Amino acid sequence: ENNTGYLEFxxxxxxxxDVIEAENQDRRLVYxxxxxxxxxxxxxxxxxxxxxxxxxxxxGEWLQDAGGKxxxx
Length: 73
Prior knowledge:
This protein is mainly alpha-helical. Helices cover 51% and strands 8% of the residues. The protein contains two helices and two strands.
C-alpha cells in the first residue's frame, strides 16, 4: 500500500498487474465518491485511507511512509 491509498509494486517483481490495476481503479471511484460527499478531494480521501490501511496492516506487510520510503510493518 502506498501513502496515497493505492496498491503499488515494491521491487522489480511485478505479478498480476491486471489485478492491481483493477483494484486501484475501484479505489479511485470510491475515493472520488467519498470526496464528493465530504466536500474534499479524492487525494485527501486516499491519504486518509492509507493511514487506516497502515494501522490495520499485519506484521511483514510493506507500506509507504509519508516521505515515500517503503518499510515493513
